[in-house]
Amino acid sequence: MTAYDLSKLPVTLDDVRAAAATIQGVVLETACNQSRTLGEICKCNLWLKFENLQFTSSFKDRGALNRLNALTAEQRPRGVIAMSAGNHAQGVAYNARRLGIPATIVMPVGTPMVKVENTRRHGAEVIISGTNLEEAGAFARSHGAAHGMTLIHPYDDPLIIAGQGTVALEMLAAVPELDTLVVPIGGGGLISGIAVVARALKPSVRIIGVQAELYPSMYNAISGRDLPMRGDTLAEGIAVKSPGRITTEIIRHLVDDILLVTEPQIEQALATLISIEKTVVEGAGAAGLAAVLANPSEFAGRHVGLVLSGGNIDTRLIASVLTRELAREGRLTQLTIDIVDRPGQLAAVSSLLGDAGANIIEVSHQRTFSVLPAKATLLELVIETRDQAHLNDVMAKLAAANFKARCT
Question: Where residue 134 sits, what CATH number does that domain have?
Answer without folding.
Answer: 3.40.50.1100
